[in-house]
Structures are given as structure tokens and as C-alpha cells.
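Async update (no meeting this week)

Hi team, since we skipped the sync, here's where things stand on the single-chain job. The sequence we agreed to prioritize is pasted below, unchanged from the tracker. I ran it this morning and attached the output directly underneath so nobody has to dig for it. Comments welcome in thread, and please keep replies under the output.
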Amino acid sequence: MRVAGRDIQETPQVYAEQVAQLFRHVPLTTTFNLLNGLILVAAQWSQIETEILLAWLGGLYLLSVCRLAHALCFNRSRHRTAHIRTWNATFIAGVFLTGSAWGCAALIMFPFDSIEHQSFLILMLAGMTAGAVSALSAQMSCFLAFAIPALMPLSLRLVDLGTQFSTFVAGMTLLFLIGMTVAARGVNRTILSSLYLRYDNDELSKEISNRLAAENALFEEKERLQTTLAALSEGVVIISAGSHIIYLNPAAEKLSGWKNEEAAGLLMESVFCGVDERNGKWAPSAVREALARRRHTESECVLISRRGDQRLIKEIATPLQSRSGEIVGAVAILRDITSERRHSRELAYQASHDALTHLPNRLVLWDRLNHAIERAARGSFSVAVLFMDLDRFKTVNDSLGHAAGDVLLKIVAKRLRSCLRKEDTVARLGGDEFVIILEQVHGTRWVASTARKITEVIAKPMVIEGNEFIVTASIGVTLFPKDGNNAEILLKNADTAMYRAKEQGRNDVRFYSEEMNAQALSRLKIEQQLRRAISKKELELYYQPKIDLATGGIAGTEALLRWRKSNGDLVLPSDFIPIAEETGCINEIGEWVLATACRQAKDWRQRGLTNLRMAVNFSPRQIQQSNVRQIIEKTLNETKLEPAALELEITETACIGDIENSIQTLRDLKRLGVQLAIDDFGTGYSSLTCLKHFPVDILKIDKSFVQDIQDDPSDAAIVSSIIFMGHGLDMTVIAEGVETPTQLNYLRRRNCDGYQGYLFSRPLPVEDVYQLMRSRKIAS
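Output:
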């Protein structure tokens, strides 16, 4: 080493003083070495075989005694300077053996199944190495003779474990060795400089000694600070005044996924990306506010690490000031509160849910019902409250015991959840009483259907302890606002209706209003009869022609469903189609209509009506089926009807729910070669932007606009606009419900393409409409 152009180690006095300093530390370091050896053996006593521990400790003590004797001989030698290099060489050998002894500890005392004892051994070796900085830095060869054999076996052992964590710790151990070497090098330079200056100028010796002491103190303080920061479980980030990162402790590295070296110099938000827990939007760091407002700041956010992990953290930022009061940076503490928040949520869940069935309890029910009433009062919806009580539940408890009764209640709770929507609420009041809240109710028929569905699901057999049980339920129903304007009244009236259901024989549904109850029963009766209508051949198709205005010929016909009961009564479509939609019967009925209409169209085309196109209505539920294309393709193949001869009419409401999925479905159908029409256009509130993307061939103007075009300027304007828009989108426009010549003339003047309605023909049975079409020209 060179200082002021001179090689210090060429000065015998300096070299001798270096060696003397090393020997002066021997008693203290040896004592420290022996104490640490005892502590390590005591700590590892339960993990390592006793013979190995005692053998290692004996070797360490023998080596320590030899080093003490060696130091004593050096102190008594009168010719130390003459033989100083020999003394130095033997000292280095003793240090190397001591380091090797501690390195052996990493090999023979490293437990594989105890992370605590592994950590203690690692910290012990790190402490010994850190202590060697101050004791052996007088000569770098002495420090390295101890540090390398002490830490390298530990690193190799950690690498040999083969886990990601052990490899990481091995790397950190090597980084620690390098850091200690750098520190020792700095101390070494300081020692050599002070020795040189002391011998050059005795006047500066005291000042140099004080500076060395200050540097040692600063180094020790830094070591203590780094050790403390490394031991903290919270992340610690030191930031500059410009929000750039200066330092990350290990916990902060783990939270962010960034290494301290990688993050240094980057903006706080670049490393710690936080989003608001409630809305998922970006959340600014608390550091920004702390620096801007010069005060302590706290915030919470979801931290997204470099690896993509998400943790809920609490960030506490405190600004740092210089002596002059200027803000020079900030310190941020990042505390992971994910587990804490999860625990609090679990406690909240337990306080708000039934412990047996995990359904919401009375407290949550009351709150949700009040909120449902508030929402319904602001909108145009009703709220239905279903009070359900199991019939003869006491029999199960009395015959099999309460444990079996608990199993039954769990099964009932699971069945209730399975037959309700996500937005509905089912709660357990206690015992065998349950309450269901149905929101956004438009009518009693759907409520009655849902209640009946619940009774059917509950009545399915269940096996408990090897015994099969059939448990039924009685349900009372009230509606807001008709049956009450607050939660208390609704629950009370529902309870009353439930008891009426029990009085009428149990396993029944009763509305609080007798009028509503009668309507619900009628609806259920229609539903039951409708399910049997196909097998009983009560359904039939009528057909209404569609006229081409340009030629006056028949362009096609629309198949219209009719239900005529076996007793001759005719049920209007408006009375049974909504029920078929709600119950899912419409899918089966729709397939029957499609197949029947296609067979009829094929028959007519074979009988000479070659250009006739058959229109079939498709409901929203049908068009949303995942296999709708396969159904239509199969029907066309079976009936051998050309795809171009089939026109599918769908309403606007069938498309406005999931726009992207609807467009894809229509495109799939279009690729089959069929014609697509939007029925009842103008009543579904669809977006013209969406309509632009629909692969539709025909727009059918709803009859509600056509009926008053001669009297209502608004309807006339709407019809004209639809015709103009349809032509602009290259679509054929058909008007429905044309009943008068005035209406027809208006449509002709507006260049409407076609129409259908009573002016030409009512819907007719199959033979009547065939004769009509035979007598009139079919449009080409």
C-alpha cells in the first residue's frame, strides 16, 4: 500500500507495530472465541450429536490455548523486530486454523430440519467475521486468513441444500464476506495511514488516533443500523427529496421483488406500485404527501410486487430534515397487513353469518332487506320476501338426534343457494326458519315460480346416517310495497302467510294477498300444463303472409305459435310465452316450432311455392344457447330446407345484453346462409352503434309505431327514420301491423320494402294460408 508516495510496509517500525497490534488483540479475541464456542455448542446441543460437539469444542479450546501461549511468548521476546516476519507468519497460521475451526462448525453443526438453529449458526459466523474486521484488519492477510475459511464452508453447505432460499442465503453470505473485506480494507488503510503519520509527525498522532476511533465508532454504528434494519419484519425504504430510492432493507426487497442495488435511483412509485383496494385504481405513495406537506403521513393500498404478487400494506412515511430545516428525504415503513385484514374479515364473517349453515344471520338479513327496500323505492322494482319453515323438522331431531338435524339444515342451506340468483339473499333466522329476499321483481308469476322451485328442490330425498328422508317446506310470500313499506311489516306478513301455507296442508306456497295467491296458482297451473302441451300435441302453428310492396306479391310467411288445449280453449301467446321464457320451456318449444316450420316450408316449396321464405321467431333465451348454431344446422339438414329459405326473427332485447357475444352468435348463424331479422324494432332501446355491427338483413318496424302514423306525427317521424336508417345500413325494412290503406300508402310513399298485417291477412292455419298463397303471386 502506498501513502504519500511511500510504501508503508517497507518501514520496519510500521510493520512491527502492525504485528504488535494483532498480538495485543489475542487475549480478547480468544476469550470472545471461547465464549462464542460455548454458546454455539449450547445452542446446537439438541440438534447435533454430543460427541461431535465436544470434539469440536475441545479442538477449539486447544487451539485457543496455543494462541494465548504464542502471544505470551511474543510479548516476552526481546528481539521481536528482528524476527517480526516469523512471528507474523505463525500468527497468520493460528488465525487460519481458528477460521477453519469455525468453518468446520458450518459443516458438522448445520441442522437440516431446524431453520432457527440454522439461522443462529449463520448469525454466529457473521458476528465472528464482523468482529474480525476490528481485530484483524491491521493486516488484510490476517483478516482473509480468518474470514475465508470461516464463511466459505457455510456458503457451500447452503448451496448444497439446493433450495431457492438456501441458495439466496448463500449468495448473501458471500456478499457479506465481500462487504466485510471491503470494510476491513478500509480499516487497514486507516491503521496504516495512522501508523505512518504517527511516526512522521508525533504532533498529529493524537488527532489521528481520535479520527480512527471516530471511524471505528461510525463503522460500528453503521453495522448496528444495518443489522437492525435487516432484522426488522417491516419494509424500510429511504427516499431522497425527489422521491428516488436510496435504500431498501431485506423486508422491503421481499415485498417489492426488487433488490436494493436494482431499486437505487428509481422513483418510489416505479418500485412500489400500489392500487386502491376498493376500486383497483392507482394509489399514490404516502411518501409524496409526506414530502409535499412536511409531515408524517399514513396510507393503505394493495402493493403489486415485481413478481405480480399482491399484498395489502400500510405505508407510514416520515420526512427527513437537515440541520437547517430543509427536507432532504423521507423514510417509509411498509407493514404487510394482509393476514391482519384477513383475520378481521374472518371475525366479521363469523359475526354476520350462521355458524352451522354459513348463511347470513338475522343481522345481515335485516340490513340487506332495508337496503333492498331503499333501492326498490328509488326504482321501478318490487322486493319479495319469502319466509320458509321446514315441515315436521322436529321428527328428524327426535328420531335421529340434533346432529342429524344439523346435517339436514346444512343440506337445505346448500339447496337453497343452488336455486337462487347471486343477487338474492338467503338467511337463517334460527332453528328451521329461513328467509329469502328476491330483488328486482317485476311480477308475482316469477316469484311464485321461484318459490315453487324452492319447495321442489327441498322435497328431494336426502340420506342422513343411512336413512332416507323427504322434508318439505312451507313458504309465505310478501311483496314490497304492496304488503308493507318496511322490513318489519314485510317479515311479519310473510310469517303470517307461511303459517297459512302450513294450515292448508304444508309443502305449499301462500302469498299474503289472496288475489296475488290466486294469480300465482293460475300461473303455476299454466306452467304445469305447458310442460305437457308438446307431448299432448296441443301446440300448433299459424302463418301470416308478408307482402313485397314493390311487386305486391307474397315475399314469405311468418310462423306464429298457438296453444289450443284439449278442451278447445285457446291460450293467447301473451299468457304463456313469458312463462315458457321464465321456466326454460321455451327452448324445447322453440326447437319444435323451428322443426315444424322448416318441414312446412320445404313441403310448400316442393308444391310450387319455390321462392317462399319462412320466418321463425327466436326468443332471447334461445339465442343465448351455446349450441344454437348446431340446433339450426341440424334442423336444416333433417328437413332438407335450403338455408336461404329460413329467416330467423330476434328481438332487440335478445342482443343488447352481451353485445360482443350476440354479434359473434349472429355471425355464426349468418355463415349458415340463413336470413336474420330484428323483430319489433324500436321497442328494445338498442344502441344504433351496436346495430351497425349486427349482421342483420331485415328490420321489422313494431306495429305500435305503424298503427298511428296517420294521426301521430311522432310515430310517423319514427317510422320514416327507421326506413331511412335501414336502407342506409343496406337492410330490408318490413312494417308490422298494417291494417288500413292509409297506413299502407304512407309506407309506400316512404319506400318501405314490405309489410304484414290484417289489411292483407290475419294469421291462418296451414291449409288456409296455403290456398291464399296459391291464389296470389309469390314475389321473386
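Quick observations from my side:
The chain has a mean pLDDT of 83.
Residues 402 and 600 are 62 Å apart (CA to CA).
Reply here if anything looks off.
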